[in-house]
């Protein structure tokens, strides 16, 4: 599929059910063998959709931004979000919260477009699961380096690593 055929657009409340389904499908795929299987099996599309509905319906004045990835057939294939850093010790004011893509969207170039749209030329940090080699390789290719910060995923204790990118660096 041609890169140009993939669409990035803002989400609407009407997208929330499908967004919840895609969000959980991405997690089950990306974290299989990394996070506990019972945790992944217990992820709820309905709870995810409700959280998205709440987020999109609320008055989010933080300056954060979410973009959906739509495939050439018009199906939701992923999403990304970025905004002000949530870390008390933030080394940059901006954070990439998430880039989540279904397998069919990987390798199309749409992840690069998504990251560019969400970050622009800003300095930014992100948290990535340490054992997620595919994601870490992508972020490294895009100029992120291990910053040294470490955290445990709250629900599973899975190790997360903070990465940083300096604009122009």
UniProtKB/TrEMBL annotation:
Domain of life, source organism: Bacteria
CDD domains, alphabetized: NAT_SF
Pfam (any one): Acetyltransf_1
InterPro entries recorded: Acyl_CoA_acyltransferase, GNAT_dom
Domain N-acetyltransferase: 29-168
Protein name in the entry: N-acetyltransferase domain-containing protein
Source organism of this protein record: Terrabacter terrae
């Amino acid at each position: 599929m041609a890169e140009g055929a993939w669409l990035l657009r803002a989400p609407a409340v009407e997208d929330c059910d499908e967004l919840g389904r895609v969000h959980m499908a991405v997690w089950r795929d990306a974290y299989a063998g990394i996070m506990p299987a019972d945790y992944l099996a217990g992820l709820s599309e309905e709870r995810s959709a409700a959280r998205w509905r709440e987020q999109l319906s609320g008055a989010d004045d933080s300056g954060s931004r979410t973009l959906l990835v739509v495939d050439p057939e018009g199906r939701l294939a992923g999403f990304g979000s970025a905004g002000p850093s949530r870390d008390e010790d933030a080394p940059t004011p901006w954070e990439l919260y998430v880039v989540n893509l279904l397998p069919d969207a990987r390798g199309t170039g749409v992840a690069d477009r998504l990251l560019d749209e969400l970050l622009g030329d800003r300095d930014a940090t992100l948290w990535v699961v340490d054992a997620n080699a595919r994601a870490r390789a992508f972020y490294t290719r895009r100029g992120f380096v291990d910053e040294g910060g470490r955290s445990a995923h709250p629900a599973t204790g899975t190790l997360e690593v903070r990465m940083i990118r300096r604009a122009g660096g």
